[in-house]
């Protein structure tokens, strides 16, 4: 199984846009993105550091995106 990339929140938002997600709204330091295609949402904490591996996995699971998709794009 491939390792997850070290990724910052802003880069993750850019990658999720490629999968059809749009920014729905922002509450405090969290951006909520929504995909009309699969009716899923992803909540991304906006901080300056890289996302921890567990947080990244949870965001991908919540949005219905596989790890291989995020590595390939």
What can you see in these coordinates?
The protein is an alpha+beta fold. The chain has helices at residues 9-18, 53-63, 67-72; strands spanning 21-27, 30-35, 40-45. It has one domain: 2-Layer Sandwich (Metal Transport, Frataxin, Chain A). The chain has three helices and three strands, in the order αβββαα. A three-stranded antiparallel beta sheet has the order 1-2-3. The two termini are 17 Å apart. 19% of the residues are buried. The mean pLDDT is 90. This is Addiction module toxin, HicA family. Keywords: Endonuclease, Hydrolase, Nuclease, RNA-binding, Stress response, Toxin-antitoxin system.
In one word, what is the shape?
A: globular
Structure annotation, total helices: 3
Q: Please tell me the overall pLDDT.
A: 90
What gap, in angstroms, lies between the N and C termini?
Answer: 17 Å
Approximately how much beta-strand content do the residues carry? Answer: 25-35%
User: Which structural class fits the helix and strand makeup?
Assistant: alpha+beta
Q: Give the proportion of residues in helices.
A: 25-40%
Order of helices and strands: HEEEHH
- Provide the CATH architecture: 2-Layer Sandwich
The CATH topology comes to Metal Transport, Frataxin, Chain A
Q: Count of DSSP E strands?
A: 3
Q: Compute the CA-based radius of gyration.
A: 11 Å
Largest sheet data: 3 strands, antiparallel
* Total domain modules: 1
- CATH homologous superfamily label: Hypothetical protein
Question: Unreliable stretches, pLDDT < 50, 5 or more residues?
Answer: none
Protein name: Addiction module toxin, HicA family
Family: Belongs to the HicA mRNA interferase family.
GO molecular function: endonuclease activity; hydrolase activity; mRNA binding
Pfam family, one: HicA_toxin
């Amino acid at each position: 199984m491939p390792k997850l990339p070290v990724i910052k929140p802003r880069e993750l938002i850019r990658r999720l846009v490629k999968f059809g997600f749009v920014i729905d709204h922002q509450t405090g330091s969290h951006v909520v993105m929504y995909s009309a295609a699969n009716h899923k949402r992803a909540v991304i904490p906006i901080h300056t550091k890289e996302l921890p591996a567990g947080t990244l996995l949870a965001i991908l699971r919540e949005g219905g995106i596989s790890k291989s998709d995020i590595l390939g794009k």
